[in-house]
Amino acid sequence: MGEQGDIIDASGAVGIAASLSIAEEEDTLSLSALMPTWYLRRGGDDAWVQYECRQREWEEQLRLIIDRSWRIANGEINPITFEPIPPPDHSAVVGELIHRALTLDQARTEAFIAEQERLQEEEAIAILLVAS
Fold first, then answer.
1. H or E element in which residue 19 lies
2. If DSSP codes are grouped into helix, strand and coil, which group holds residue 121?
3. What secondary structure does DSSP assign to the chain, as a single string?
4. Pairing status of strand 16-24 against strand 27-35
5. Which of 48, 50, 71, 86 could anchor a disulfide with 76, C-beta 3.0 to 4.6 Å?
6. Mean pLDDT of all residues in the chain?
7. Taking a C-beta distance cutoff of 8 angstroms, is the pair 44, 51 a contact?
8. What is the pLDDT of residue 12?
9. Angle CA(76)–CA(97)–CA(85) in degrees, nearest 5?
């Protein structure tokens, strides 16, 4: 036979480390793999489907964690209870701004009325002076 010096070596990566080595005189078969523990306990195509399902679940959980972290960073939710943080109550500030705007409008209106009265008085005086 022409088997002298033949060496077969295989390695792969997927959760726990395992290795297998078979030696027969000068022939060596070595296999090492990294696989999830639940995958080793089960076998067949169903195990691969479950692995892919768990991968998708893990990705979805990671997406939710990133989304929640983003909302915490933006002050939208409480970092301890994860409850929404209500928007601040600005009613006092809005009330004060409305009060100032009304006061300013009232002052402008009074100034306008006073100016109109003054103009009417000057016009009345001018008419009396022309008439006399």
1. strand 16-24
2. helix
3. ---TT-EEEEE----EEEEEEEEETTEEEEEEEEE-HHHHHS-HHHHHHHHHHHHHHHHHHHHHHHHHHHHHHTTSB-TTT-PBPPPP--HHHHHHHHHHHHHHHHHHHHHHHHHHHHHHHHHHHHHHHHH-
4. antiparallel
5. 71
6. 79
7. no
8. 52
9. 10
Query: In the structure encoding, which two tokens stand for residue 115, read together?
Result: 């100016």
Pair of tokens at residue 55: 């991968």
The CA distance from 79 to 85, in Å, is 10
CA distance 14 to 29: 20
Query: pTM to 2 decimals?
Result: 0.36
How is the beta sheet containing 7-11 ordered, strand by strand? 7-11, 27-35, 16-24
Q: Alpha-carbon distance 107 to 114, whole Å? A: 10
Q: Say which amino acid occupies 9.
A: D
Q: Kindly state the tokens that stand for 13.
A: 């990566």
- Mapped onto helix, strand or coil, the DSSP state of residue 21 is strand
